[in-house]
């Protein structure tokens, strides 16, 4: 019986060990989206990268462990050096760990506002070597990435990146497909989100979309996302103009046409709160003499 117990314990140990070994790599995933453009996933976070011959252009490091894994993956599978690393914006849940992703000759790129924040906030990551204000084209062999700044949306200096000629668009946080925007929209400028998303849709059509979270998709999916934030903003704004407080808005606003989105039940009240707070803190609705309400 003692021997049988030893065998059972040993088998259980092997099972637990194998589960742990399998669990760690499962947190990371690399998918080919189109041509030489790939999506890297670290749990609920995503970045994009492009390979041209033996060179790589990568985007957000996400964190130190994810950056180490991605660099090792690129070296092992593509035998490529990291030529460029591009930050989407300055928020630390996407920008940490840059020192673990770059090589000795990597050029680090960010919008000037993102670069300022990374430096002023002493974020433990690689600081940008190259900054820009409106647009920047970063070439890699016969491919390139077009970066564009549309103004405030989520975080400072948050830009879109279009990978060409694959025509894959990468946007972090201010466009989210297949899922509700994050909780109470911390760090978001709702008017800026609307403006930036409309501006992207006014650009030439893109073949595929990669977001910093949630699903990949196409232009139609981005249009659906825009409709959601437009309807959310309209419902909260119009309710506030009628003098309704936050609790009433959360009780009355349902937007059932978007119930298919992930986290709809859990995050809709928080999304409502996020727009409400935006309209108070940025829109100064609490100072409007035409509204008979206490915010």
Topology readout:
Elements: H1 2-26, E1 28-34, E2 37-42, E3 45-52, E4 55-58, H2 64-78, E5 81-86, H3 92-95, E6 107-111, H4 112-120, E7 130-132, E8 135-140, E9 143-149, E10 159-164, E11 168-171, H5 190-201, E12 208-211, H6 219-241, H7 246-252, H8 264-281
Parallel strand pairs: 4-5, 5-6, 6-7, 11-12
Antiparallel strand pairs: 1-2, 2-3, 3-4, 8-9, 9-10, 10-11
Account of the 3D structure:
With about 300 residues, the protein is of the alpha/beta class. It has one domain: Ribonuclease Z/Hydroxyacylglutathione hydrolase-like (Metallo-beta-lactamase, Chain A). About 40% of the residues lie in helices and about 20% in strands. It contains eight helices and twelve strands. It has a seven-stranded mixed beta sheet. About 40% of the residues are buried.
Number of strands: 12
Class derived from helix and strand content: alpha/beta
Q: In what range is the share of β-strand residues? A: 15-25%
Q: Share of helix among residues? A: 25-40%
Using only CA atoms, what is the Rg?
A: 22 Å
InterPro entries: Metallo-B-lactamas (IPR001279), RibonucZ/Hydroxyglut_hydro (IPR036866)
Keywords: Signal
Signal peptide: 1-22
Domain Metallo-beta-lactamase: 45-213
């Amino acid at each position: 019986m003692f021997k049988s117990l030893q065998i059972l314990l040993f088998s259980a140990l092997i099972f637990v060990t194998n589960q742990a070994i399998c669990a760690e790599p499962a947190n990371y995933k690399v998918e080919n989206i189109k041509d030489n453009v790939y999506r890297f996933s670290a749990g609920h976070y995503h970045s994009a990268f492009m390979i041209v011959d033996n060179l790589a252009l990568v985007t957000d490091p996400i964190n130190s462990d994810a950056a180490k894994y991605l660099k090792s993956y690129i070296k092992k599978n593509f035998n490529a050096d990291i030529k460029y690393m591009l930050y989407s914006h300055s928020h630390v849940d996407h920008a940490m760990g840059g020192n673990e992703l770059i090589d000795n000759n990597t050029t680090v790129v960010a919008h000037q506002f993102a670069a300022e924040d990374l430096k002023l906030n002493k974020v433990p990551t690689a600081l940008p070597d190259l900054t820009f204000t409106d647009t920047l084209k970063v070439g890699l062999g016969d491919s390139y990435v077009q970066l564009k700044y549309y103004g405030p949306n989520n975080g400072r200096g948050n830009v879109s990146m279009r990978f060409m000629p694959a025509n894959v668009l990468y946007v972090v946080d201010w466009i989210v497909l297949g899922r509700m925007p994050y909780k109470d929209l911390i760090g978001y400028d709702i008017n800026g989100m609307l403006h930036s998303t409309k501006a992207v849709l006014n650009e030439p059509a893109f073949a595929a979309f990669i977001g910093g979270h949630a699903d990949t998709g196409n232009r139609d999916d981005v249009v659906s996302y825009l409709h959601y934030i437009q309807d959310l903003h309209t419902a909260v704004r119009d309710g506030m103009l009628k003098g309704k407080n936050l609790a009433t808005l959360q009780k009355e606003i349902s937007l059932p046409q978007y119930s298919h989105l992930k986290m709809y039940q859990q995050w809709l009240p928080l999304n409502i709160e996020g727009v409400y707070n935006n309209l108070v803190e940025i829109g100064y609705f609490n100072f409007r003499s035409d509204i008979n309400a206490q915010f």
